Structure formats: structure tokens, C-alpha cells
């Protein structure tokens, strides 16, 4: 009989089932883009009772057959559970959704998996605290298909006790890494890694375009690009202590040599008849370093230049 009542409960309206939903196996997910959908599916598959809400209401319909509860309003979504997971474009979207019902945030735990800047995250954490809600920042280092995979990882920061209290459910989504009490710290680590990610992938796309312009397919190029990328960890291990020690002597390579090398990449792109703006931007960075007197230093001396805002 108890199991039957639980199954019937899945078909109740959010209002009728709110009291039953308030336990450690229930959660609200707001935002049903590709990442939000992946989160909901994994939570449902792992036995969690999930209340969903999205601005475009019909995006929630596909989850009803799996037992999700569809909230008709943000207010219903927020009041249904103590734990609220946000998967939105940015933190401004959070304000747009939650500000009108801010009086209902008291006592809630907001796990925000949206992307933004560290300072905007800190401001949002203060705003939520003013409304008696607790905030945990999450930076998901995975694409939607990686949700539910232990090889994927999400970075978290904020109150340690909140992270520990919610760790079981967060571990269902991905592996977790707690970075500290500062709510902006997880986002800082996240954006730093995204900096590397997109820059690397853009260079890959540019190299593929040069290759294809010369009759070489992406498949033919793949092993060569893979070899270059596989060499990077060793280079990082070599340069990291030097960078931390402020040592940029040109005993291994010199910035002027790097400038000449990148110039050849630019010219090769032009010869292929493709857009050379990406390597040209890299060349311009090298040029600035040389102009600042670092021609004979290692390319790592660019770190000193990057410290000074060009704006």
C-alpha cells in the first residue's frame, strides 16, 4: 500500500505534494536547457523526487512520464523543496526569476550551476543571504552527456556545511571538488579552465581549416594534433615552477623565436586563403612582449605583461 501511495504521489500537483516532497530525496531544478535536462534525468534515474520549472513551460512536459513534478509557477517550484538547483545562462537570469518571489527564499539552499564572473557570484551570494537563503556555487566542468559520469567533475565553493549536507545528491551528478568558503572561488577556477578550453579548441578548429584548405582531412590531422596536445602536460610541469618563481630567462626558448614561429603560422594561413585573425591575435601578443623588452626572455615572460590591463 505504501509503495502504491508513492506511485500515486508522482501524479499529484505540486501544491498537493509539497509536504511529502520536503525530504532529503527531493529537489527543485529551475532551468531546462541541455544541462538542466541532463541534471533532471540523472536525478530521476537515481530515485530523487524532482520538481521542475522553466520559463518555456512545455520543456518540462517530457519529464512527467518519468515521475517529475511540474511547477506551474516559480513560487510553486521554490516552495516545494529546500534544495533548489539552478541551471541558467548567467546570474542575471537568477535575479530575473527569483527576485519577484524573494520573500519565499528564506531557509532555501540555492545551488547555482550557472556561469558568470567570480564577483557577480559573490554579489549573488550576499543577495541571497539578505533573504535568509544559503548559496553554493557550482562550476560544471562537463558537457550535458557527462552528467551522471563520475569522470566528470563540478567545482563547488561556499559554506562548507552546506556542501557537506548536500554532497550525496551533488555526487550523483558528477564527482565533486570543494574549493573553499569564498563563493567566488569555484567560479574563478571554472573560468580559468574554460579560458584554456575554448582557446585550445579554437586553435584546433583553425588548424583543421588550414589543413582542409590544403587537402588534409580532419581525420588525417587528428593524430598529429593529439600528439601536440599530449606533450603539453610535460611542458606545463617544466614551466610551472619557473612561473611561480618569477624566472623567465630564455635558456630554453626565447620570445623573439616564438614571434617568428607564429608569424609563419599567420603567413601559412594567408597562403591557404583562410581567416588568419586567430594566429594574428597571438602574434600581436608576442609583438607586445618583444616591444616591452622581453625578446631574449622566455615566452613565459608574457605573464608579466598580462598582469597589466590593456584596457
Features:
311 residues; alpha/beta; Rossmann fold; N-(1-d-carboxylethyl)-l-norvaline Dehydrogenase, domain 2; 2 domains; eight-stranded mixed sheet; 12 helices; 8 strands; elongated; disordered N terminus
Tell me briefly what this model is.
The chain is α/β, with parallel strands linked by helices and 311 residues long. The protein has helices at residues 2-9, 14-21, 34-45, 74-80, 91-98, 118-130, 160-173, 185-213, 218-244, 255-271, 277-294, 302-306, and strands spanning 26-30, 49-53, 69-70, 83-86, 109-112, 134-141, 149-157, 174-180. The model is unreliable at 1-23 (pLDDT under 50).
Topology:
Elements: H1 2-9, H2 14-21, E1 26-30, H3 34-45, E2 49-53, E3 69-70, H4 74-80, E4 83-86, H5 91-98, E5 109-112, H6 118-130, E6 134-141, E7 149-157, H7 160-173, E8 174-180, H8 185-213, H9 218-244, H10 255-271, H11 277-294, H12 302-306
Parallel strand pairs: 1-2, 1-4, 2-3, 4-5, 5-6, 7-8
Antiparallel strand pairs: 6-7
Amino acid at each position: 500500500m505504501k509503495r502504491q501511495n508513492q506511485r500515486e504521489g508522482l501524479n499529484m500537483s505540486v501544491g498537493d505534494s509539497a509536504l511529502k516532497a520536503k525530504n532529503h530525496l527531493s529537489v527543485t531544478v529551475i532551468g531546462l536547457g541541455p544541462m538542466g535536462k541532463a541534471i533532471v534525468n540523472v536525478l530521476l534515474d537515481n530515485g530523487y523526487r524532482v520538481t521542475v520549472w522553466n520559463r518555456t513551460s512545455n520543456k518540462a512536459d517530457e519529464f512527467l512520464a518519468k515521475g517529475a513534478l511540474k511547477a506551474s509557477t516559480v513560487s510553486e517550484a521554490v516552495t516545494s523543496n529546500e534544495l533548489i538547483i539552478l541551471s541558467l545562462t548567467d546570474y542575471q537570469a537568477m535575479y530575473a526569476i527569483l527576485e519577484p518571489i524573494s520573500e519565499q527564499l528564506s531557509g532555501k539552499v540555492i545551488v547555482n550551476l550557472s556561469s558568470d564572473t567570480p564577483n557577480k557570484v559573490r554579489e549573488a551570494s550576499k543577495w541571497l543571504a539578505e533573504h535568509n537563503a544559503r548559496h553554493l556555487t557550482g562550476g560544471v566542468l562537463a558537457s550535458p552527456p557527462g552528467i551522471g559520469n563520475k569522470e566528470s567533475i563540478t567545482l563547488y565553493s561556499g559554506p562548507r556545511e552546506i556542501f557537506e549536507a548536500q554532497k550525496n545528491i551533488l555526487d550523483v551528478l558528477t564527482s565533486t571538488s570543494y574549493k573553499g568558503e569564498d563563493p567566488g572561488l569555484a567560479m574563478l577556477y571554472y573560468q580559468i579552465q574554460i579560458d584554456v578550453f575554448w582557446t585550445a579548441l579554437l586553435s584546433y578548429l583553425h588548424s583543421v581549416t588550414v589543413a582542409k584548405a590544403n587537402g588534409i582531412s580532419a581525420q588525417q590531422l587528428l593524430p598529429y594534433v593529439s600528439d601536440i596536445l599530449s606533450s603539453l602536460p610535460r611542458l606545463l610541469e617544466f614551466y610551472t615552477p619557473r612561473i611561480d618563481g618569477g624566472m623567465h630567462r630564455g635558456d630554453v626558448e626565447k620570445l623573439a623565436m616564438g614571434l617568428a614561429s607564429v608569424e609563419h603560422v599567420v603567413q601559412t594561413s594567408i597562403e591557404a586563403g583562410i581567416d588568419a585573425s586567430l594566429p594574428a591575435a597571438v602574434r600581436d601578443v608576442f609583438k607586445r612582449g618583444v616591444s616591452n623588452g622581453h625578446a631574449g626572455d622566455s615566452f613565459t615572460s608574457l605573464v608579466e605583461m598580462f598582469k597589466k590591463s590593456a584596457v
